[in-house]
Amino acid sequence: MGLQIQHLLGLENVSKEDISLILDTADSFYEILQREIKVVPTLRGKTVVNLFYENSTRTRISFELAEKRLSAAALNFSASTSSVKKGESLRDTIRNIEAMKIDMVVVRHSSAGVPWFLTQCTDAVIVNAGDGLHEHPTQALLDMMTIRRKMRKLQGLKVAIIGDIFHSRVARSNAWGMTTMGMDVVLCGPPTLLPQHTESFGVPVTDNLNEALEGADVIMLLRMQLERQASGTFPSIREYRDRYGLDLEKLSLIKKDAIIMHPGPINRGIELASDVADSSRSVILEQVTCGVAIRMAVLYLLGGGENA
Ligand code: ASP
Predict the structure, then answer these.
(1) How many C-beta neighbours within 10 Å does residue 40 have?
(2) Residue owning the nearest CA to atom 4 of ligand 1
(3) How many CB atoms lie under 10 A from the CB of residue 280?
(4) What's the 44 CA to ligand 1 centre distance in angstroms?
(5) Domains contained in the chain, number
(6) CB 165: neighbour CB atoms within 10 A?
(7) Residue numbers of the domain that contains 62
(8) Which atom of ligand 1 is nearest to the CA of 58?
(9) Tens of pLDDT along 44-98?
(10) 24 C-alpha vs ligand 1 centroid, how far in Å?
(11) How far does the centroid of ligand 1 lie from the alpha carbon of residue 101, in Å?
């Protein structure tokens, strides 16, 4: 049985069965990635365009690697060097790319809803690689994969997601995906960086760090999104670091076997002290490794790999 979804636009409405299938498939790809020859022929003949309108390091490289390891033809489009600079619309860009006969589009954009919009103007399979403040589904999937590999389960684990919740598409995708998988998520940050209508998350939200950390099995720090801040959203970086940044002192308050995660890029010394980021409790680089396997699984399952 394949996936119920045809595109990966977000995790808000993705079923437990679909998430489980992606995680299980990614586990198999993870094993392949340990081999000397890491390439499989599953998407041979398929063409994937990586349409990046916003900066990215991990996500872009990870998708490109995943495509190459599945033997798909991977093309990279970056808005800063394209005709977008000459004023070409998103719809025209995608219709022109589609006219070159492509099968899948991986898209990152600063506006929420762009991946959905693309499903309305092309027949290609669309994968969201981050849309504005909305969702970043492959990040949440790789986070769940990392946790499942470390803790051997997801159901019943408590996850504290801490930081700039308001601007975080990672927090949104994780809140929805993890809740679907039976995990207990709590979102925590300064009141000015918490969304106003928190009911839509369906999980508790608090500005009390100790409350969030208590009993947590997983602590996920979020990057302070300095490029997206309107003025006055937090008093000062120093105050933020003192109250919400995870350092060795606060680490002593958490469960002995709890793991530390961060989607990257880290603002070292702000949301996460360097010695904590590099400690044995941190699984941050394992998240990056799982990212390639998750993206292989998503592309394989959506790209018809099941029937290949
Ligand atoms: N890399 C993640 C994203 O693109 C997290 C971040 O930028 O802070 O949303």
Answers:
(1) 18
(2) 130
(3) 7
(4) 30
(5) 2
(6) 22
(7) 16-134+288-303
(8) 1
(9) 999 999 999 998 989 999 999 999 999 999 999 887 777 777 788 888 988 888 8
(10) 24
(11) 30
